[in-house]
Amino acid sequence: MNTKWGIGPNRSRRVARRSRAGFTVLEVTIAAAILTLSVGAVTSMLATTNSLTRANAERSAALNAIHSTIERMRATEPSEVFARFNADPLDDIDLDDPGFQFDVEGLTPQRTDADGFVGEIEFPGDGVLLIEDFEDVELGMSRDLNGDGVIDGVDHGDDYSILPVRVRAEWLGASGNQQVEVVFVVSSR
Prior knowledge:
The protein is α+β, with helices and mostly antiparallel strands. It is built from 3 helices and 4 strands.
């Protein structure tokens, strides 16, 4: 061993022991940066998960209200569906007919929504008249609704045998304006 230069078994042990005694400033800085990034990533993930959970709950509430409305329509005599659920209160069969709008508990109407309802039922035409030559691809229109072989522009609210329907919910959600809709056909055939 070379003790002349101070290099011996005791000296190398003292240097090794001293370097293991604590962290250097660089090590502490790196550890703090890693911890900060990790906490930031977890916080971001939790915020995203919370937002997605709220959005899913909103969508679920809207779909439940739509399906409930569809079930009420299916429980109605097919020939009465248009009169009971259209936008014209003058052709309602009963005073308690639901009309074309419905609310969805827990959802807020969009800011631009003038009527204040989240839900809406649409038929081919203007909401008051049921028109065969109304153009709407999603509803499969234009279409012969009364089965007479003619597609015309007159009101078929009293003589339809098939009735395309769109039930929509539009609301101001956790991530802005949201919408969900279901299209189906009521048939008296």
